[in-house]
Structures are given as structure tokens and as C-alpha cells.
Design goal:
Layout lengths: L7 H11 L8 H18 L4 H15 L14 E5 L2 E4 L6 E3 L8 E2 L1 H11 L3
Antiparallel strand pairs: 1-2, 2-3, 3-4
Helix pairs in contact: 1-2
Length: 122
């Protein structure tokens, strides 16, 4: 596909990625190729406006291992990683602690999402 057949999004992505400094090992080039493939696929789907933002938000959460629906306090979903501290099986960054004075464990949701965003550096 030459440049005249590419979408505005693909041309924009190529231009932006070309501005990133290249490394000696060539890793940036490989990453750029992978990203451009994803941008092309997204562009080929024909999203615009609402559907693009909707798809991007969902994809962003999925790629960060963030749940799309509320996390529930089902005991079978949690495993104890150390005494009184539990992680949800599919999302290890989400923790809950059992406090002696409470009957029901406290789910540290805010910390969970901050931790997940932080561990990806975004």
C-alpha cells in the first residue's frame, strides 16, 4: 500500500512514529511496525466519531488488563497472596485486605486502578 492509499490516521501515525529516536538494537523500528499494523487494522474497520472513541476506550482497558464491568466480591475469584491480603485471580494488581473489625473485606478499587495504570507507565 503506498502513501496515497493510506488513511489520514495511518499517515499521522507514520509521521508521529518517525519522530521517535531510533535505538541501536532496532527495537523501536519493530515496535513501530507492530503499531502501524494495529493502526491500519483500526483504520480498516471504518470507525469515526463516537464508535472510534468507544472502541478505543474499551481496547485501552483490555490491553491494560482492566475490567470492563464492576469487580464483585465473589470468594472464588480471589486468592490469598499473604495473610489477610487477597488478589483477584484475573487482575493481580487488584487487592483487598481483610480487617479484623470488619465482617466483609474492603476492596481497594481506587488503588487497584491506580496501580494498573501506573504499572503500564501511563
Amino acid at each position: 500500500m503506498d502513501n496515497t492509499e493510506k488513511s489520514n490516521l495511518e499517515r499521522f501515525a507514520e509521521d508521529e512514529l518517525s519522530r521517535i529516536e531510533k535505538d541501536e538494537e532496532g527495537l523501536q523500528e519493530v515496535i513501530n511496525e507492530h503499531i502501524l499494523k494495529m493502526v491500519q487494522l483500526f483504520s480498516d474497520e471504518g470507525h469515526s466519531g463516537f464508535s472510534a472513541n468507544y472502541a478505543i476506550n474499551i481496547l485501552n482497558r483490555l490491553l491494560r488488563f482492566m475490567p470492563l464491568t464492576p469487580i464483585e466480591d465473589n470468594p472464588e475469584d480471589w486468592s490469598e497472596c499473604r495473610e489477610g491480603v487477597y488478589h483477584i485471580s484475573d487482575i493481580p494488581a487488584c487487592s483487598k485486605i481483610k480487617i479484623a473489625l470488619t465482617v466483609k473485606p474492603i476492596i481497594l478499587m481506587e488503588k487497584c486502578f491506580q496501580t494498573m495504570a501506573g504499572r503500564h507507565g501511563l
